[in-house]
Amino acid sequence: MGKECYPSAMGWSAVGVDVGGTKIRAARVVDGRVVGETFRATPPDDPTMVMGAITDAAAGVHDGRCPIGVGTAGQVDRHHGVVLTSPNLPGRNVPLGAALEEAFSVPVVVDNDVRLAAVGEWLALGGEPGVLVALYVGTGVGAGVVLGGRVLAGVNNLATEAGHATFRSGGELCGCGRRGCFEAYAGGRPVVERLARRIGSGQEAPVHVGGVVELAERGDPAAREVWEEAVEAIRTLAWNLVVLYDPAALVLGGGVVRGVPELAGTIREHVAAQVWSGFLQPRVVVGSPDAAVTGAAYTAWKEHERG
Length: 307
Description:
By secondary structure, the chain is α/β, with parallel strands linked by helices. It folds into two domains: 3-113, Nucleotidyltransferase, domain 5 (2-Layer Sandwich), CATH 3.30.420; 119-286, ATPase, nucleotide binding domain (Nucleotidyltransferase, domain 5), CATH 3.30.420. The chain has helices at residues 47-59, 96-104, 113-124, 182-186, 188-198, 209-217, 221-245, 255-259, 262-274, 291-306; strands at 13-19, 23-30, 33-41, 68-72, 75-77, 82-85, 108-112, 131-137, 141-147, 150-151, 249-253, 283-286. A five-stranded mixed β-sheet has the order 3-2-1-4-7, sandwiched between helices. The protein has a five-stranded mixed β-sheet with strand order 10-9-8-11-12, with helices on both faces. A two-stranded antiparallel ribbon has the order 5-6. Helix 6 packs across helix 7 and helix 7 packs across helix 9 (262-274). It is globular, with a radius of gyration of 20 Å.
């Protein structure tokens, strides 16, 4: 587990794993580039099977020497490699880091997927932005902030859980148990569920956000109301993050952003209209599809380098 993992001709090398709700992606990353990858389906309802699938995916690209970084949605005790709660890894207090360290005999870092992806976005932009904010809108809503190449974690490793800041006080019930969170209005699953509750009994409800947007564009009043409120929430959250962190770059990602291409332009226009006269505007860009695995790999390598 020494420096032999990183011969000078190669730079740095590590494995990054992204644990998604339906699939697990593991990638061998060299100097920020994906040079090999494997995929496995995410088994439902069984943490032991999920950990087995993660191990199997990582084994497909691991060289026997280099560190491994793993990102998953939810709350993670990064210091101990324990997944406290995650929609993608059933159960509580799952010792994922220890299991992988035993399987591979290398250092392992486990962290929240969005925070690791923010590091990957910073890498994709050449490591240039001194302050970068990544806002991901997919099934849920999350954010990550990178300051000088290091992700902002917070005392409880919960910094920038932006989806659970309040958008509407006392509003819609969120999956976290609180009311009015940004995620309850803008997350892909809540958007679909909100429309399903309002739609007429004789009409089939969409199963994804794209269907909601199509109905809204055709003039369906319920779909239009749900989608307009979702866009308002996303734009408001994006601007709040810009005000709070004054980033050089605001990176947008997640399934909703990718599935509704015009959304990035709407956010860009909104941020540009809000920036105070005479101040630099943040660069607003759509994120890299490899950010989750490259950020996980880079973070694992940096932690190993620090010893």
